[in-house]
Write a structure and sequence with these properties.
Elements (H helix, E strand, L loop, with lengths): L13 E7 L6 H9 L6 E7 L6 H11 L3 E5 L6 H10 L5 E5 L4 E2 L3 H8 L6 E9 L35 E4 H5 L10 H9 L5 E12 L18 H16 L7 H20 L2 H10 L1 H4 L8 H13 L3
Parallel strand pairs: 1-2, 1-4, 2-3, 6-8
Antiparallel strand pairs: 4-7, 5-8, 6-7
Helix pairs in contact: 7-8, 8-9, 9-11
Length: 313
């Protein structure tokens, strides 16, 4: 059984890392949900990326009301990846959580994640629930997908369920990844590295309410869209991540060999239309690749899914 350390409430400080950019519409509600956390020993680090709306004024007011808030402002827009990397580097607490500017947190989010984090794991995450309008009071995890946990990096070679806005990690682990690689989703990459450092832990509770609006479309959503080139965009993203995973220090020789073969086949499928070899590889490793799917008639579903993904050129 995985050993867990029970951290008494507020027994150590947690760094909250938030990046803002033109977030005036929903920022105040998110700030309230962070400031009202039951885990009160917080270092709240907020870096604004040269917003042109009232974001900075909202942040200054919050900082006047709460001494735990530390504000930073970029003179020019650095872009999310650099701004986020810079802000993560400022964290001084032993543990770190990521806050998007437009979500709403359950008031027990940090406490429940802290209490569930095993001593051996560098990263734990909870579930999140997408909403628009008024945040729900309670929400159950989406039953459509399983959630990743453990140390099998191949399970992350096609699909990821680890969301940055829902994770809590050891600060030294996150800072060892800085600066986050361009072109990668930092949470997906962090989860892959975590598989080599003790594994990813999942807490099956919905503790983040993720607001859906016209400015927060994720690159990962391309997998579910119906645009003609959405599959190609998604598989290009899979290629970039799988290629980076094959370079991670600490993966086994067998996993490295499989990831290198997978990236070669992905390149052929995406760029040259050589889909059949990619299809065969997916089916051969379907237990690893389709671990997240909860459906009857698994083989039929896997065949259809593998064919659809492979024909991505």
């Amino acid at each position: 059984m995985t050993e867990r350390i029970t951290y008494p409430l507020n027994s150590c400080k947690v760094s909250v890392v938030m990046c803002t950019y033109n977030g005036e519409r929903f920022l105040e509600e998110q700030l309230r949900s962070i400031r009202m956390q039951s885990w009160t020993e917080l270092e709240i680090l907020i870096s604004d990326d040269a917003s042109s709306d009232k974001t900075w004024e909202i942040l200054q007011q919050a900082a006047r009301e709460d001494q735990r808030i530390q504000l930073f402002r970029n003179e020019t827009n650095l872009g999310y990846t650099q701004n986020f990397s810079n802000n993560c580097a400022r964290a001084t607490a032993p543990f770190l959580v990521i806050a998007d500017q437009d979500d709403v947190w359950h008031l027990e989010k940090i406490a429940r994640l802290m209490h569930a984090l095993p001593e051996s794991s560098p990263l734990i995450y909870c579930d999140s629930y997408r909403f628009s309008g008024t945040p729900p009071r309670e929400a159950k995890p989406n039953p459509k997908y399983k959630r990743f946990e453990g140390e099998d990096i191949l399970k992350l070679a096609l699909f990821n369920t680890v969301s940055g806005h829902a994770l809590l990690a050891r600060t030294d682990f996150i800072q060892s990844l800085l600066p986050f690689p361009d072109g990668l989703m930092y949470d997906w990459y962090a989860a892959a590295v975590a598989t080599t450092k003790g594994g990813v832990t999942y807490l099956p509770e919905t503790l983040v309410y993720q607001r859906v609006h016209d400015r927060n479309v994720s690159v990962g959503d391309g997998f579910h869209q119906k645009e003609e080139n959405s599959k190609r965009r998604y598989m290009l993203m899979v290629y970039r991540h799988a290629h980076a995973f094959s370079k991670i220090e600490g993966i086994t020789t067998l996993d490295k060999t499989k990831l290198e073969a997978w990236t070669n086949l992905l390149s052929g499928a995406v760029n040259q239309g050589q889909w059949f070899a990619c299809f065969c590889f997916i089916i051969k490793h379907r237990i690893n690749f389709f671990w997240y799917k909860k459906r009857r008639f698994g083989l039929i579903s896997h065949l259809k899914h593998a064919y659809r993904l492979s024909r991505c050129s």
